[in-house]
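Tutorial handout. Part one gives the primary structure; part two gives the three-dimensional structure as tokens.
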Amino acid sequence: IKKENSVFVEQDSNLNAYIEDIKNQIVSSLDYPSLAGELGSHGTVKVRVRILADGQLKDTLILDSSGSQLLDNSVIKTIRKLAPFPSFPSAAKRKEVVVDIPIVYS
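Part two.
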């Protein structure tokens, strides 16, 4: 499991390191579902994550499916389990951040 270059929908120089930490936390927490492995499932899931300034997960959305519901659901389940995330740095002015993360299962 790896992440491709992520696209930040919204950028704030005070949040760049925060966003990178969140992406790394999500990707490093992902597991390849055993049934998906047995079925030979693979593909890229592109997920959108919206996080509020206090670290609460506002929502997640699959933007592009991997073609495997097992892989797609695994990403969503992992993100929800990780929430809440740390609060934004005090210098950040945004009330929420939106991050798109492409995740490759191969």
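Part three, for discussion. The radius of gyration is 14 Å. The beta strands are 2-3, 7-8, 43-52, 57-64, 96-105.
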